[in-house]
Amino acid sequence: MYTFTFERPTSVADAQRAAQAGNVKVLAGGQTLLASMKLRLANPEQLVDLGGIPELAGIRREGNNIVIGAMTRHADVAASADVKSAIPALAELVGTIGDRQVRAMGTIGGSVANNDPAADYPAAVLGLNATVQTTQRKIAADDFFQGLFTTALNEGELVTAVSFPIPKRAAYQKFRQPASRFALVGVLVAQTDSGVRVAVTGGGSGVFRHQGLEQALGKSFTQASAAAVKIDAGALSGDLHGSAEYRANLISVLTQRAVAQMGG
After folding, report:
1. Less CB within 10 Å around the terminal CB: N or C of the chain?
2. Which of 82, 99, 104, 100 is nearest to 91 (CA)?
3. Can you tell me the distance from the alpha carbon of 146 to that of 252, in angstroms, rounded to the nearest whole number?
């Protein structure tokens, strides 16, 4: 292990000040960061642990929104009665993340800030049209995710919470990569006040909305309507786990399954 300093602030203000000082990495759940440090892919001079800030954790309902603090663990979201009753698809999605150990340590803030191209939470944030709240502003989901491990966050800007509007109904279907349990492809379909949203994770360089599926399902919310949409494999990624064509087929199949789950 190489030398670094470790700081555990007790307030958001202190955490933001520490996060803006030089070669710093912010530690949320640590499920990606610590592994990266072990492999020398990350070499921070200082770690700023957010685990000592009570106000960053917790789940609450604000009007027609479920607000989840950035340091809330996956296991707590999956088990939350408020989430299960208001957005059951979100609780189900979070319950598929990794394994029990990952869910006991991983956090929503760490997941969305990391923006792994095969992570589950970004599909929920984008598909449910959530708002990411930070130490500086509020960022709409459509503006937040910007590609492979890239977000709209500025240097030193910290996620404090994510606010999910309660949809009319939603469903998440995921085809797991057997070893990692990341999504080889995951699809979240939501019927919201502004229309149908379809978010895909695991298919490309980052989470994205599929406009063709959204338009088709907006006209006719049926499995047949989803099945009729041609999924272009040219924009998708391929690797040893599955070709781009295979992922294209998965997007179609999982969307149809989500629609069926929602009664369409």
Report:
1. N
2. 82
3. 23
CA 10 to chain CA centroid, nearest Å: 26
pLDDT digits (tens, 9 = 90+) for 215-252: 999 999 999 999 999 999 998 999 999 999 999 999 99
CA–CA distance, 135 with 177 (Å, rounded to integer) = 34
Local structure of 42: helix, strand or coil:
coil
Angle at 135 between CA 90 and CA 66, to 5 degrees: 25
Sheet containing 169-176, strands listed edge to edge, beginning at the edge strand earlier in sequence: 169-176, 183-192, 195-201, 208-209
The CA distances from residue 237 to 205, 240, 241, in Å, are: 7, 11, 10
Taking CA 65 as the corner, what is the angle to CA 110 and CA 82, rounded to the nearest 5 degrees? 80
Interatomic CA distance for residues 171 and 65, integer angstroms: 17
In angstroms, the CA 221 to CA 129 distance is 19
Q: Where are the alpha helices (DSSP H) in 80-201?
A: 81-86, 88-94, 100-105, 108-114, 121-127, 141-144
User: Which residues are paired to 140 by β-bridges?
Assistant: 131
Cβ proximity of 45 and 4 under 8 Å: yes
| 178-226 per-position pLDDT tens digit | 888 899 999 999 999 999 999 999 998 999 999 999 999 999 999 999 9
Tell me how many degrees the CA angle 161-100-84 measures, rounded to the nearest 5: 50
